[in-house]
Design goal:
Layout lengths: L2 E2 H6 L2 H8 L7 H8 L7 H13 L3 H9 L16 H9 L7 H18 L12 H11 L4 H23 E2 L1
Parallel strand pairs: 1-2
Helix pairs in contact: 2-3, 3-4, 7-8
GO biological process, one term: urate catabolic process
Organism: Azospirillum humicireducens
Keywords: Decarboxylase, Lyase, Plasmid, Purine metabolism
Length: 170
């Protein structure tokens, strides 16, 4: 259900967190902290506040946020606890339509990435094809750990922005 910014500004804390708690994957603490910054002038201000909360959260909490994201998964290896947002985003990117060879490569890249960095590969896949996703995985697995930590956070901010665009009208 899309909400207006006025609707969100009028909500009590519990309703606000229920409405926006999934914007940052399994991290309702972001919406909880954002509630205290109401009222928001518009969706852009809400997005900036939520992103700012994560930026200021510190490395430990940021790492926990990164770890809350699922591996990108083909239909056969998709975990049962994948959020509705993630299921929709991954399906729209064509990850349900990988060939057997592409699915195996993706699983291998997920494993190599996780072994190298200690967290899942994260990419805002909404406007990406399966080929672009695999190419990004191949490229980013070679990054330095501190570069990739920052890249993962930037991708999370994009994902959250897309989710807010879906949830906040006007």
């Amino acid at each position: 259900m899309p909400y207006s910014i006025d609707d969100l500004n009028r909500m009590d804390r519990a309703a606000f967190v229920a409405a926006l708690g999934a914007v940052f994957e399994d991290s309702p603490w972001v919406a909880d902290a954002a509630w205290e910054q109401r009222p928001f002038a518009d969706a852009t201000a809400l997005r900036a506040a939520m992103t700012g909360i994560v930026r200021a959260a510190g490395t430990e909490r940021q790492r926990a946020l990164i770890l809350s994201h699922p591996d990108l998964a083909d239909r056969a290896s998709r975990p049962a606890n994948l959020t509705a947002f993630s299921q929709t985003e991954q399906a729209k990117a064509g990850l349900n339509e990988l060939t057997n060879a592409e699915a195996q490569e993706q699983r291998d890249l997920n494993r190599a990435y996780r072994e190298r960095f200690g967290f899942p590969f994260i990419m805002a896949v909404r406007f990406s094809s399966k080929q672009e996703i695999l190419a990004a995985m191949r490229e980013r697995v070679a990054n330095e750990p501190d570069v990739e930590f920052g890249r993962a956070l930037e991708e999370i901010y994009k994902i959250a922005g897309f989710r807010l665009d879906d949830l906040v009208k006007g």
